[in-house]
Amino acid sequence: MRTFFRALFGLILRxxxxxxxxxxxxxxxxxxxVIFVLNHPSGLIDPAFLLxxxxxxxxxxxxxxxxxxxxxxxxxxxxxxxxxxxxQDAGSDSSQNRETFDTARGVLARGGAIAIFPxxxxxxxxxxxxxKTGAARIAFGVxxxxxxxxxxxxxxxxxxxxxxxTFRSVALLYFGEPFVVAPVALEPGEEPPAGPVRELxxxxxxxxxAVTLQAExxxxxxxxxxxxxxxxxxxxxxxxPPSLADEFALRRRLLAGYDVVREQWPERxxxxxxxxxxxxxxxxxxxxxPQQLAxxxxxxxxxxxxxxxxxxxxxxLLPAALVGVVVHYPAYRAVGFVATGMxxxxxxxxxxxxxxxAMLLFPLTWIGVxxxxxxxxxxxxxxxxxxxxxxxxxxxxxxxxxxDRIIGGARALSLFVFRRWAFLRLLAERHxxxxxxxxxxxxxxxx
Length: 447
Prior knowledge:
Blueprint: H1 2-16, E1 17-23, E2 34-38, H2 45-53, E3 58-63, H3 70-78, E4 82-84, H4 97-109, E5 113-116, H5 134-143, E6 153-161, E7 169-175, E8 179-180, H6 194-209, H7 218-232, H8 244-264, H9 266-286, H10 300-343, H11 347-377, H12 379-418, H13 420-446
Parallel strand pairs: 1-7, 2-5, 2-6, 3-4, 3-5
Antiparallel strand pairs: 6-7, 6-8
Helix pairs in contact: 1-2, 4-5, 5-6, 7-8, 8-9, 9-13, 10-11, 10-12, 11-12, 12-13
């Protein structure tokens, strides 16, 4: 059952996210006891990523109220999650956490792997929240009984979402360098001393900071995101987009210089931020994606090939896409309405609610279509409709993604052909901003 649900959730993630990458998987120990520690930016999406994409079988520590929810509790048990009883959860008894820790230690003592979100809650803060000590306490409780040939390792993992609340965005699961937990002398049943627990928790926090994006203010992330797009956009269309690991690394470098530049060169910082805002506003007015501001795209041969391929794809997808839109639009709108209402502005919960609502409403749509066809044309056609309905939804998704890219490309081509001066001015401004960012980066390195 676990294998089936792992494949199912993996498919759901691939539909919700247009692009998913896993980096650093070679750092994960193939065997032996492992504790994965992760940041927690996006509710139930975060554990789904680890459970579906990690190369190890993992038992996740999850808050106890999830086990009492009708559907989510079923999935928690299917994935062999371990309940954590938090003081802030209604109806929870924190004294039961002794059993939780014993269960987690048992998994590790058998050479298995567990995962913990040491911040304790999902959130949308610009940096990690203070970590709980549970991971360190479990680690010391296990490490004392392990042999030196198979020590306990902690593997930090960072979850990076380019736009976590947006359907068909991109996501990266990034595994950092593992480290060995040195045991401390403990009697059976004895709690580890506070000093080593604090030190190990601080080490976990440093390890997590190395695989996540950290800033004091959300404004820093916003500016760095826009700066990263400018720095990484090329005048020639690349054969393939840069990896998300490279994008993540660039954002970390830009964030590292953000505070230094703002403090040491405040006037240059303010001028650069203003230029970036104006450049982004000009792109928005023109309806352009930064990637489309590439003159190398608009040679006659490239334009002809792109248009021919795009038209062929759209024509082939059009019949199924039209059916998919008619059938699925009510469910699509309902998912957005339900998610927005239930999330109540909490960005870390929005994607989770969207996925759960879609998992309910879209299959109900397919069953409803099959039932109507069955009543009208018989059982065999009804079963055929049940098989085809999901394919029409996917065809509609691909169709409108391709159509959106074609419309964006047409805007860029129109600007390039009929308002060349405006196109070249935007291009020159991007070059100038990029040169200033690079110059400030050199200044930070030599300061």
